[in-house]
Each structure stands twice: as structure tokens, then as C-alpha cells.
Amino acid sequence: MNIKLVILGIVLIAYLFQPDSQKTRKSLIFLVCLLFTIESGLRGIDVGNDTIAYYFSFYDIINTQWFDILSALYRDSSEVRDPGFAVVVKAIGSIIPSWQIYCLISASFLYVSVGKLWNKYIETRLGILFATILWLALFDIIALSGMRQMLTTAIAFYLIPYVEKKRWIIVIPVVLICSLIHISLLFFLAFLPLSLVPVKLYKKLLLLSILLVPVIGLFSQQIMTFMVNSMENDYYQGYAVVAEGAKGYTYVILCTFLSVFILFNYRYLKTAPNFFMMAAVMMTLLVPLILRGGTAIRIGQYFTVYMMVSLPWIIERSKMKNFYYLIMISILILSIITSSSNDFHFFWDSAGNYIYGY
At 350, is the secondary structure helix, strand, or coil? Predict the structure, then answer.
């Protein structure tokens, strides 16, 4: 089943047969997030590269004593990887020891944050439709594979209003604590130094970032090695290893093109929240690192996802609104149609693969 096409079809029907109003805009957000939650929360354990590993990990963790779970928080990082994730799993699993319920809770946590983000920063139903298709094409895998970064991505979304208001007294401790779930969340703190840059320099900073893309791509191996060596845990050494056949050129070109699009339409962002430009700068700088392998995409993920709100903001204010939407939506739908997404199935279709039950 190509679940992406199913979701896309339902959303398109809802979009076409509802009147255009703020009430229906919110109802469209609710429908999309509900569909995404069902997709992620009710998926089979064979869906997503890491799902089955997290499935076994879930039952290992809930069968571990609380003392061992909590003591891991104080052990050396070279011995324990992301101990905060075990705390989250244990807390939920101790109450409801069901993998599928845990998936539903995690998916709800993510998509409530997505819905709040869209409701705050996307003003039209067409913008919501565009963000939906963009998510399906580029970011849907977040909720279908990794469980740790799925949680930290949601946390990052919840923190965005505090970043916008520069309430670092809340952002910094939350990020530091929640990075115990997945250490990559620490990259989110890049918003702090960027917030100190005068707004008048944002355009020049984005231009510089675009010019640095080939340089970062050329030295991506050395950059990844430096970052990984700063961590003591051997697990992350794999992030610096060049994956066989690793390319990612299409994704790098796409994100760079979008950065150029944002640069040329910067005038429309002068009234936008500052984090739009901050995210664009970080996206441009970090995306070339995926040339070393797909795992590096997790580093830039905290910034690439914001294109789903910054692009509608720009397009809605452009005189070429309909043209931009037509071109981008057409390309994204073509990407969804041609992608290999036929391996999706719900958990009841793979019941024979469950060892511990649902």
C-alpha cells in the first residue's frame, strides 16, 4: 500500500470540498495531523528501517528495573547512548505495556506539535495543503523510523514560540535535558548565536551560507569526523563513515535551490519571525553533510523542516503565488508518486511478526 497517496487523496478531497475559511483551515490541519498520527501510530513493525529494533528495545526497557534506568543517566556517555529515551519508554510502558499504544502516544506528541506550528505560522488552506505535501515528500520518514529523534523533533517544534520570543531561560535547559533522548537536539541551540546577529545581516548571512555549500560538501567528511570525535560514544562514529553509494545530491540541490528561492524573496520575510531566516541559514550549512551518508540528514533535520512554514509565508505574499504553488506542488506530488512507498502496512497485517504481543 502506498499510504502517502492514500493520505494525499483524502486531504485533496477535503481541501476541494470545503469552503475557504479560518474554521476549515483549522479543520484541515486537524484532519492532516490525525491521518499522520494513524499512519505512524498504527504502522507494522516492518515499516521503517529502525522500527523493529525499537520494538525489541521497548520491551527490553520496560522489563528493566527503574534503578538501572535512572542510574544510566549518571554514567559516562561512552557507556550509555541517549539514556533519556529509556526513561520516556519506561514511564509510558510501566503504565501501558503495549508497543502499539506507545507508538500512538509518540505520534500524537509529534503531530500535535506540527499542528500547533502550522496553525500559528501558515495562514491559508492552500498553504496547509502545500505543507502537507511537502511533509509527505520529505519528512514523513521522521515518524516512520527513528523513535528518539521523532520525540526530539516534536520538542523542538514546541520550543519554537520560545525561540521567537528569545526566552532562552526556558529553551536552553529543556534542550540540554531532552538531548538525553537524542543528542542531535543540541544542534537546535544554534538558534541562540544566530539570534544575536542583527536582522539587517540575515540576507548576507544566507548568501554566504549558499556560497559555502560546495566547500562544506567537499570537506563534509572532515567536518563530520570532527563533530563525531567530540562525542565519547562509539555508536556515533558511524555518522562519520561514508556510506557505500552515499550521494544525496538531489536532496542537497533541492535544499540549496530553496535557500536561493528564499534569498531572492527575502523582502517577504522582513515581517516574518526571525527564526525563518535562522533556520534557512542552518539548513543551507548542514544539508551538504549528507553527502557522507543518509545518517547525517538527522543533523540538519531540525532546520530543514521549517521550510514547510517559511515557504508558504513567502508564496502567499508573492505576486506569483499561483505559479509557485503549482510548480512546487506538482514536483512534490511527482516525487511522492515515484517514490518506493508501497511497503506500508498496518500492525494487524503483520501480527505474525510480533513476539511480545501488541
Answer: coil
Q: What pLDDT does residue 343 have?
A: 77
Residue 260: C-alpha distances to residues 28, 175, 207, 303 (Å): 30, 30, 8, 16
H-type alpha helices, the chain: 3-16, 22-41, 51-62, 66-71, 83-95, 99-121, 125-134, 148-164, 168-178, 191-195, 202-218, 220-229, 249-264, 275-286, 297-304, 307-317, 321-338
* Cell numbers at 349, concatenated: 497485517
**Residues forming beta bridges with residue 43, ordered by sequence position:** 346
Q: What is the CA radius of gyration of the chain?
A: 20
CA–CA gap between residue 285 and residue 330 (Å, rounded) = 27
* Residue 7 · residue 35 · CB < 8 Å: yes
pLDDT in tens, 64-113: 999 989 888 887 655 567 889 999 999 999 999 999 999 999 999 999 99
Predicted TM-score (pTM) of the model is 0.90
> Number of C-alpha atoms within 13 angstroms, CB side, residue 340?
3
Counting as low any pLDDT under 70, the low residues of the chain are 1, 76-80, 227-247, 292-296, 340-342, 351-358
158-to-81, 112, 131, 153, 342 alpha-carbon distances in Å: 24, 9, 18, 9, 32
346 beta partners: 43
What DSSP string runs through 60-79? HHHTS-HHHHHHGGGS-TTT
Q: How far apart are CA 353 and CA 102, in angstroms?
A: 18
Contacts of 235 (CB under 8 A, 6+ apart): 81
Residue with cell 501558515: 122
| Type of residue found at 171 | V
Contact in structure between 247 and 298 (CB atoms under 8 Å): no
How far, in Å, CA of 181 to CA of 83, rounded? Answer: 6
What letter represents residue 69's amino acid?
I
Residue found under cell 527503574 = 66
The number of C-alpha atoms within 13 Å of 181 and in the hemisphere containing its C-beta is 21
